[in-house]
Specification:
The protein contains 4 helices and 10 strands; from the N terminus they run H-E-E-H-E-E-H-E-E-E-E-E-E-H. The protein is of the alpha+beta class and about 210 residues long. The strands form 2 sheets. A 6-stranded antiparallel barrel has the order 5-8-7-6-9-10. Strands 2-1-4-3 form a 4-stranded mixed beta sheet, covered by helices on one side. Strand 7 and strand 8 form a beta hairpin. The longest helix is centred in the C-terminal third of the chain and has 19 residues. It starts with about 25 loop residues before the first helix and ends with a helix. The model has no long low-confidence stretch (mean pLDDT about 85).
Length: about 210
């Protein structure tokens, strides 16, 4: 109101503004269609439902996934999407998202294509893990963690606290304690690759365990 902007009375939008009254799912359906596939329990490896396309689901999603699950699985919820494997057309979900088994997947990830505002990495990075503040995705919060640079444009980030929706392709932007932007990078596909490998190993352990 103070600046009398033309959109000052327009209600807030949590979706894609250019869609207008079109539902996001209808937009995806029109442009991407459907491709049915399995929803798999990330811990046991069991098929717990069927999805209509991996593009309809996001990591960390809880709302809306229940309608794609089999009744027996629904009764064991709540379920969260924890990973996607587009190549195999699989959505992975878990009802143990807050358990220790997912701590690493929710707090450690590779970043690539790192760009530094000054053109080079801070000198302190050569001394080992570097404490930084980060903004992940478009969220409003800054979170703390450590960055270990592997080479000029890749590194590993370890967060102090678990994040609810890490996924490849998202941006992680680095800041100093004084909120000065240092640069940023893109969460690598390695994040899912390692998670999917760990999932396969856990599934094999469950199958081989006596009494399961």
């Amino acid at each position: 109101d103070h600046f009398e902007l033309p959109n000052r009375n327009r209600p807030d939008s949590q979706g894609l503004c250019f869609l207008g009254k079109i539902k996001f799912s209808d937009f995806l359906q029109a442009h991407l269609g459907s491709k049915e596939g399995d929803i798999i329990d990330a811990f046991s490896g069991d098929i717990i439902g069927r999805h209509q396309g991996v593009w309809y689901h996001t990591v960390g999603q809880r709302k809306g996934i229940g309608k794609s699950l089999f009744p027996l699985a629904t009764s064991r919820g709540p379920w969260y999407v924890v990973a996607k494997d587009p190549a195999e057309n699989i959505v992975y979900a878990s009802n143990q998202y807050d358990e220790d088994v997912f701590t690493q997947a929710r707090s450690e990830f590779h970043v690539e294509n790192i760009h530094w505002i000054t053109g080079k990495a801070p000198d302190e990075l050569s001394e080992g893990p570097y404490r930084i503040w980060l903004k992940i995705r478009h969220g409003p919060r800054l979170v703390q963690g450590s960055l270990q640079v592997m080479d000029d444009d890749e590194g590993i980030i370890t967060l102090d606290a678990k994040d609810g929706g890490l996924a490849p392709g998202q941006y992680a932007v680095f800041y100093t304690d004084d909120a000065v932007c240092l640069g940023g990078g893109i969460i690598s596909e390695r994040h899912w690759a390692k998670f999917l490998l760990d999932t396969q190993n856990r599934s094999e352990e469950v199958v081989e365990s006596p009494g399961c």
